[in-house]
Specification:
Oligomer: single chain
Helix content: 40-55%
CATH class of the largest domain: Alpha Beta
Bound molecules: uridine-5'-diphosphate, magnesium ion
CATH topology of the largest domain: Spore Coat Polysaccharide Biosynthesis Protein SpsA, Chain A
Distance between the termini: 32 Å
Strand order of the largest sheet: 3-2-1-4-6-5-7
Number of helices: 10
Shape: elongated
Largest sheet: 7 strands, mixed
Structural class: alpha/beta
């Protein structure tokens, strides 16, 4: 049986792009068994009606219409929920990604990879506003998460269905799906894809992404390394801080008790108090985080691991 391929496309005010994208997808996918899931993320420019029209005349197209604008990550999640495919492809709805790259992504999945990410080597976006911050971000993200990709921001990606099933996405974490998936043991790779300048419609992102992506990187690093043992991270720094403060205080006390040096003239006393208090707070936060983590796993019956297979001795059946 042939694999069903779902193309999930978030759409927010892309009126002028949808029809052409749809036509080009049909051409690129004619050899495949596919469905297209357009997720309308609260568009106000008439995109909704265009999606509705296409979905009503073509059985291979589904329209998922959200109640309001939730953002690209939520729109993608909604699409994943509806998509039935064994392989899921995500792409932008603005024609910046090229449908002709899809067969090459699928080839890599067939080779056995779980996630294939697009790399816009020749990216057609403004330098200062987009390409520069994004290359810095890509460098930081790959160093911190240990998943080495050149282009996290590219929406054109392919996933095996199982990978997305174990994933819950919040905020703007769609950029980090490969990193989060590799946390669950996925095999990740990338291929160079084409990229086109945006010809119609407006880009939805600007420089305000920078602090958001930075914070998300921190969050993902935390999830990757400390999700099941937050006390090791927070408590580690807490202990360090507490003992640094403690030894300064000890040193000051010895000077006061044995040499009569007045504490009122020692500003370093403030540092000692600050370090000890910060230490206590970090350790308590770590303990709270442990409780929260347990509630998270145990209340939902989630496991901190997932078993790939169980191998066991099998008796040879005699005939
Ligand atoms: N998008 C969305 N909801 C949003 C913002 C964007 O569904 O709140 C969609 C948008 O329609 C496009 C894709 O996400 O299909 C990427 O957006 P955009 O092209 O503006 O991002 P850029 O290519 O400039 O990074
Ligand atoms: Mg775009």
């Amino acid at each position: 049986m042939r694999d069903l391929i779902s193309i999930v496309i978030p759409i927010y005010n892309e009126r002028e792009n949808i029809e052409e994208l749809y036509e080009r997808l049909k051409r690129a996918l004619s050899d495949f068994d596919y469905e297209i899931v357009f997720v309308d993320d609260g568009s106000k420019d008439g995109s909704t009606e265009i999606i509705r029209e296409i979905a009503q005349k073509d059985g291979r197209v589904k329209g998922v219409i959200l109640k309001r604008n939730y953002g690209q990550t939520a729109a993608l999640s909604a699409g994943f929920e509806v998509a039935k495919g064994d392989i899921i492809i995500t792409m932008d709805g603005d024609l910046q990604n090229d449908p002709e790259d899809i067969p090459r992504l699928l080839e890599k999945i067939r080779e056995g990879y779980d996630v294939v990410s697009g790399w816009r080597r020749n990216r057609k976006d403004p330098l200062i506003k987009r390409r520069l911050p994004s290359s810095i971000a890509n460098w930081i993200i790959s160093k911190i998460t240990g998943v080495n990709l050149h282009d996290y921001g590219c929406t054109l990606k392919a996933y095996k269905r199982e990978i997305l099933e174990d994933l819950s996405l919040y905020g703007e974490l769609h950029r980090f799906i490969p990193a989060l998936a590799s946390m669950n043991g996925a095999k990740v790779t990338e291929i160079v894809v084409k990229h086109h300048p945006r010809r119609r419609g407006k880009s939805k992102y600007g420089l305000e992404r920078i602090p958001k992506v930075l914070l998300d990187t921190l969050l993902v690093k935390f999830l990757l390394s400390y999700r099941t043992r937050p006390l090791h991270l927070l408590g580690g720094w807490g202990l360090l801080s507490f003992f640094a403060g403690f030894f300064i205080a000890l040193y000051l006390s010895i000077q006061k008790l044995f040499f009569g040096i007045e504490l009122s003239r020692r500003p370093i006393l403030l540092l000692a108090v600050l370090l000890m208090l910060a230490g206590i707070q970090l350790i308590s936060t770590g303990l709270l985080a442990e409780m929260l983590m347990r509630t998270y796993y145990e209340s939902q019956g989630k496991k901190p691991y997932s078993i790939k297979e169980i191998v066991t001795w099998k008796r040879e059946s005699s005939t």
